[in-house]
Amino acid sequence: MVLPALCCRVACLESPAALNQHLRALGTTSAALPLSSAFWSKGADERHAHRRWLPGAAAASAAAVMGAVVAMVTGSLEARGEAPASSAAPSAAGGEADEQAAALSKLHEWLTSQGADLSKIVIKPSQAGPGAGLGLFSTAAASSPRPDAPWWSWLWPHRGGGAGAESAAGAREPTTLASFPLDAAITVRTACNDPRVGAQFSWMLDKHLLDERTAVMVYLLIERLRGDQSRFAPWIRALPSTFDVPIAFSESEAAELRGTTLHKASAAMTKRLRETWSRLEAPLGTVARELGLPAPRWEDWVWAYCVFWSRGQSLPVPESGSASSALVGHSSNGSDPKIPIQILEGLVPGLDFCNHRLQPSPQCWWEVVAPQRPPQQQPATTAAPPAAAASSPGAAATSSRAASSASGSPSSPSPGGPVVRLQLHAGSCVRTGQELYISYGDKSNEELLMLYGFALQDNPHDHLMLLCPLPPRAEWDDVMFARMELLQAYGLRPQFFLPHPDQVSPSATAASKSGGKAPGSTASTSRRAGSSSSGGSGGGSGSAATDSDAAEAPALHLPGEVLDTLEVFVLNFQELAVRSKALQARMEERRTARAAGTPLAAMSQHSPVLDLASLRGRYERMSGAELRHYLQALGLRMATLTTFIRLLEIKVTELEGSEGTGSLEDDERLLASMAQQQQQQPAGQPVAGQQPHDGGHGQRRLRAALVYRMGQKRLGRAWLVRAKGELTTLLALMRDMQSRQDALERAKQ
Questions:
Q1: Does the pLDDT of residue 511 top 60, yes or no?
Q2: pTM for this structure?
Q3: Residue 13 above 90 pLDDT?
Q4: Mean of the per-residue pLDDT values for the chain?
Q5: Contact indicator for 173, 460 with CB cutoff of 8 Å
Q6: How do strand 142-143 and strand 429-430 relate by DSSP bridges?
Q7: Who's near 411: CB < 8 A, 6+ residues apart?
Q8: Is residue 225 a contact partner of residue 300, using CB atoms and an 8 Å limit?
Q9: What are the TM regions of this chain, as residue ranges (predicted)?
Q10: Rounded to whole angstroms, how far apart are CA atoms 543 and 273?
């Protein structure tokens, strides 16, 4: 009865009319179930035959109901097999809509001609929001089973399947929605195999005049200048012509980032880009003249840079099978130190239109899959690990060109070569017309805005970067040189990243420390701690935290690397020498253990563990020697906290002071006002303050800058409240312990 049940479910998912037919059939079957006494008067054989039929009829009826319920629960059941008209993205008016439809049709035809399988998806304007551009949409309902679900879970989802079912489910292939041949991707091998400019690219890479990433950007620029003559013309025409990343901001737009790390970083990146362009402009002009193309401009270089960083991927290409299975196989085979994966950096036309989503979780992910080869046909050489490939552009480019010669020219994709598959996550489902999303990674708003031109409100991956101010190197004394040497020996830098304090769990902090008892306090505060409730008008650090805030703040849990970094800058010269000598002894022990083949334990945190709540509960039972020991450790922690608070105050002043962008409360009011104007403004008309014909760039850039800097201000305030509260608690404990020590000394006298 599996086949009728399967047909019932598929039909119900695809057509409501079929659902009505099955429900009517269910009613007819149900009406026939009450049996008359004549049935029981039949012979035993006849009753047995009917009993064989009854379970099958019940299963078919249950399948019809189950299919309808699953369809309604998963959202697959619609009034029509297409996406609702109300959810469609607003289209351009008149001729623009026709031009866009024609361009998308040509793009679909071109991708198909390159070997892409787009039978289950379509490319059209995204519904992710303003500025999202194009997106990928499903053209048919699809689902992917959970890893532990038996094969019949679609029919009877609450029945267990045992170990055999789990193993069968684990072997099931992921649900693939689209695939794109790797030979159609734009990588360094594409540039080196180009019949007209490949020789020049190979020469520049061999001479280290270009690294792998810059080569891809330069190739993108040349292909854009080629126009309709480019092999990638349909795809390039579908790309945005401008981007909302900070390096493309005007001077007034960049001023909205004052006081943030991104403001300085984007200025430094723009400077490096101009230096690179000044080096490339002349040779690229010569190449353009030889090809009969217009001279490249600065705007073309910025466009190529933005396309690469906003749409590119690091593609893990396995020797055989999927990249994930290759990594699993390598981890299970500890004897082979080489990873059978080659890393290529580039762009995959078609896949690059898939947008990012954080919540709800994206339905899709992508993976590179190579043709499965028997073990005896595996190549003799193994690619370098990803770290080596990324750290050696010349070697990576050479290996990429060698691999490209074996896989054929990029102008004629090999039908049997590796492909990039867009797949459903296990347990996910999509309905017809639904937009497909992937994850760009656990990126902070700083990264999202810098690379992609947008920021997410309440981003759980946001962080605050603090820099430890350093004097010019020419002014360093022996103490500063000792600090930097110890910091380098720890593998740290004079900077650190702070997530929201609620995300630093006490257990995670204790796990990174050497010995001691884990902190017992697990108090947490609201994610918006230190925002509007902190008061103040944004004049500086005083607006971020008050004495009452500090007194009521939950316990502070700093990551181990933050404590290590801060303590290096408060130790005196003698303490630095002791730390350095101890570190050298530990490193010598590790070298000896490594030579002897002894397993090595992970390097633990170097700063001592101080659980203030535990010390508060037992300091009255301590001896004089113990009190002196802990008072010395608490003194170091007090100096560390004072330094940390000072760095936070500097950061908050930069963000909210006169040199920054005002208070957090002002930003919140501005963002709410923009949202209200957007809702009240008729479609197609610019909102107040938006320049005509700017395509909405100004408003999108302002909103992204607002969301990013608001997150930075909230993080700064939250950490400042937490740190001041910790310092208040620590000082009170030190006062009580000192009093206890004085009492013990008086008792001895």
A1: no
A2: 0.75
A3: no
A4: 76
A5: no
A6: antiparallel
A7: 193, 195, 231
A8: yes
A9: none
A10: 38
CA distance 156 to 62: 10
| Cα 612 versus chain centre, distance | 36
Q: Look at the chain and count its residues.
A: 749
pLDDT exceeds 80 at position 568 = yes
Residue 517 confidence (pLDDT) above 50: no
Instruction: From residue 445, give the alpha-carbon distance in Å to each of 127, 187, 521.
Output: 21, 27, 30
Return phi, psi of residue 180, to 5°.
Answer: -135, 125
| Rounded-to-integer distance, Cα 419 and Cα 368, Å | 6
Using alpha carbons, select from 665, 662, 708 the residue that is nearest to residue 535. 665
pLDDT at 345: 92
**Amino acid at residue number 312:** G
Percent with pLDDT over 70 in the chain:
66
- Return the bridge partners of 438, or none: 356
Starting at the edge strand found earlier in the chain, the sheet holding 364-370 runs 176-181, 419-424, 364-370, 321-322
Q: At 25, phi and psi to the nearest 5?
A: -65, -35
Q: In what order do the strands lie in the sheet with 355-356?
A: 121-125, 134-138, 435-438, 355-356
The residue assigned the tokens 């000044």 is 278
Q: Are strands 176-181 and 121-125 parallel, antiparallel or unpaired?
A: unpaired
pLDDT > 80? residue 399: no
8 Å CB contact between 132 and 435: no
Would you say residue 72 has pLDDT above 50? Answer: no
Beta bridge pairs of residue 498: 464
Measured distance CA(63)–CA(19) in Å, rounded: 11
Taking CA atoms, 695 is separated from 25, 133, 498, in Å, by 55, 12, 36
Say if residues 291 and 226 touch (Cβ distance below 8 Å). yes
Contacts of 54 (CB under 8 A, 6+ apart): 33
- β-strand pairing of 341-346 with 313-318: antiparallel
Whether residue 660 contacts residue 653, with contact meaning beta carbons closer than 8 Å, is answered with: yes
> What is the Rg, in whole angstroms, of the alpha carbon atoms belonging to the chain?
32
